[in-house]
Amino acid sequence: MNITVRQLEVFACAARALSFTEAAATLGISQPALSESIRRIETELGLRLFDRTTRRLSLTDDGRALAGVAEEVVRDVRNGIQDIASRGGRRPRVCVALLPSIAASLLPPAADDLRRTFPDAELMVCDVLHERAVGLVEDGIADLAVTMRPAGEGLLYEPLGADRMHLVMRRDHALAGRGALPWQALSGHPFVALARTTSVRRLVDAGLAAADIALTARYEVEQIPSAVALVAAGLGVSALPKPRARADFPRQSPAVPRRPDPRRRPAGGVSCRAPIDRTPRASYHRVK
């Protein structure tokens, strides 16, 4: 049987994304190249792995069975090569996916801990949104992620802590002189929201729903610095998690954070179900 590890890696990524376009972008290859790789696997096995329609892509029963095998093979090969390279004198390498909203507070102490424990280790950081962070771990690209609890059960999750949400406004805003603020304080003020794909947006929406507030975002952005810039320009208020709420404001900024209701966003370490503790991957447990 002539199926390569690379072909299994391509298939595993496509099986998880259920989108050839998204999988090709993740792997850094063209969509035709990805489709050809899948076709060769199907031809070699004599099986159809995907059901394809004009609107959706889904796995067949055979495809689901192969997906688990492919993920395990790719992960084992990648980890084995890294261990062998480490014994051969090459630097061990660890890749961590982090939510941008918590990277500023968690990354420096974790990186310092890794440096002290494994002086020769190389650290690669991917500051990406929640779904992408989980996907990087599932694809075997990242050794672990620090993000919210994933929806599926195929990964290990260890809680690390939680951060509080802060309401953010200009220093001369009508709400700036108050202390802790409830979610109801947002009513009547233009709101700068993060994209619906972000964990911050999900938490804000949950807070508004719990307070029975219907709020339409005036602006929607992908990244926290963009939200801060709009707030600083006096175009609205926003809600951000505490670690970044402070870190994103230089002293000369006209924007200031104020704490709303104590709704917390949990975050934890996400890793594969069979982590190898002999490598720097185990170091993340010490950042708690």
Q: What do you see in this structure?
A:
The chain is α/β, with parallel strands linked by helices. The protein has three domains: 5-76, Orthogonal Bundle (Arc Repressor Mutant, subunit A), CATH 1.10.10; 86-160 and 266-287, Periplasmic binding protein-like II (D-Maltodextrin-Binding Protein, domain 2, 3-Layer(aba) Sandwich); 162-264, D-Maltodextrin-Binding Protein, domain 2. 41% of the residues lie in helices and 22% in strands. The protein is built from nine helices and eleven strands. Strands 3, 4, 5, 6, 7, 8, 9, 10 and 11 form a nine-stranded mixed sheet that branches. A two-stranded antiparallel sheet has the order 1-2. Helix 7 links the parallel strand 7 (191-194) and strand 8 (219-221). Helix 1 (5-17) packs across helix 3 and helix 1 crosses helix 4 (61-87).
